[in-house]
Every structure is written in structure tokens, then in C-alpha cells.
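Take one protein record:
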Amino acid sequence: MSNFQVKGIVIKCVDFNESDKIITVLTFEKGKITCIAKGVQKPNAKLAHIARVFYCGTFEMVNTNQRNVLIGATMLMDLSGISSDLKKFYFAAHYVEIASSVVMEEQPDEDVMKLLLNTLYVLAKDKMDIRLLTVVYEFRIAALNGLAPYMDCCVECGSEKANMKFSVSEGGLVCCQEGFSIGDISCKTINYISLCDNKELYGFTVPETTINELYFISRKYIERVFERKFDKADQYDKESMGG
């Protein structure tokens, strides 16, 4: 039996037995881990407030019989406002889903964890247009994994022609293949997101037309580079349009 502490965020809670829950936590120290939160479904349970998605804190656990048991936690960041807003909830789930595909068990990633928590904080505090925030998150997490799009010249031939298109399949600008139309501001914004200092990541804005263009491209790009579908944000978009 051994006690340990980890910092992170709850990303999943599943009922277990009549009174317990199985909790999945993305952590800085140990990557993705699971633990049992005993008795949290009982009335006035001491740890009930911890056993919820988007709880961000320092978690104290004990490992016994090769199983982690939650015994306490201290909040690091109040993200409770996310769960009470449907749009924020869906987009937060989207950010978590992407991070969860990168941060695996025993494979911690401090840079991705910082990006996730900072993005959730900006989301909770309404500090940025949600679509632009999503663009920032998606292109930045791609860059952190060595998958930033190539925006300096044509991926295929190296040409620096004007009015090039963005190819999701080729991972950047192209002049000799089919792709999506992309403006100069969008190109500069993608480069900025990929290369800027962390403290400058959320302090900018671009025109509405650029946000629309970037959001369309980033949603397709993130699924291509990680080779999987991320549908949480799509679910909200469909519901908001009555789909």
C-alpha cells in the first residue's frame, strides 16, 4: 500500500456499485489514470464534489491491491461554470477528448496538460470567442506533437506563390493540388498559433470571416493528423442548428 499525489483534471466518471464511482483523471505526473471514489454517491458524501467531470485539482490516492483509491483532493482551478453552460460543456469535452488521445497511461505530457487547463480556464471565463479558442487549441496541440501545418510555401514544390490553398491531406499550403481557400490572415494566424509563446496564445483576435475560415480548416486538420474522429463539438453544432 502506498500513498501518492497527482495534479490533473477529471475527464470521466462512471457509476460503480451502488455508492462508488470509477474516475479517470488526466495527470501531469502519471498520464491517464483511473481510481475508485468510494461512497461518493451517498448523501452528503465527503468526496462527492470531486467525482465530477472537469474537477481540476491535486488528488491524493492510495494504491492498494494494484488499484488506486481516491482519499482526498484540493481544487487548483474552479471550472464549475463549464458544466452549467451547454455550449461550454460540449467544447470542453472536445478539448478533453483530443488531449485524452495524446496523454496515455504512464505517458505524461506536461505541455499538453498546460495547454488543456489554460484553454479550459479561458473557456470558463469567456475570455475568447469559442470558435477561435478551438482553432488555437487544435493547431497548438498539433504543433506540440510535431504536426504543425507547413505554411511557408507549397508543401509539394516549394513555391511561394500568392493565393495558395490549404490541403488537409498534405498538411499545409499547396499550389499544385486541390485544397481549401485560405486567406493571408489565416495563414499568418496558423503560424502564430504554432510558434508563439504560451503567454501570448490567447491574447489576440482576428476578423469574423477569418475565424469562420480557420474553424472549418482546423476541425478537419485535427482529425486528419490524429487519424480519428472528434465529434463532441460537432454534436453541439448539430444541436444548435436543430439537427
Summary: The mean pLDDT is 94. The helical segments are 80-83, 86-102, 110-124, 130-144, 184-195, 208-226, 232-240. The beta strands are 2-16, 20-27, 31-37, 56-64, 67-77, 165-167, 172-174, 180-181.
